[in-house]
Amino acid sequence: MTLSQELYDQLNQLDLKKARRSKVDQFQREIIFLRQNKLTYSKIKSWLKKEKNLDISISQLAHCVNVRWKNEAY
What we know:
Transposase, 58% helix
């Protein structure tokens, strides 16, 4: 057995946790649409609070947009 096959087998045996989902993940498309239409994070935060009854910090919202969702196709 090659080293790469051994490592692959060991990785498959590990109980790797899935990435923790954010409470805003379900609104990703809407948030991306709003950002593409030049809404600020503050205004998106207000929209989420009013329309979706969801309270999130501006920094967490920005993190989702700029880091977590950066390479995903919309």
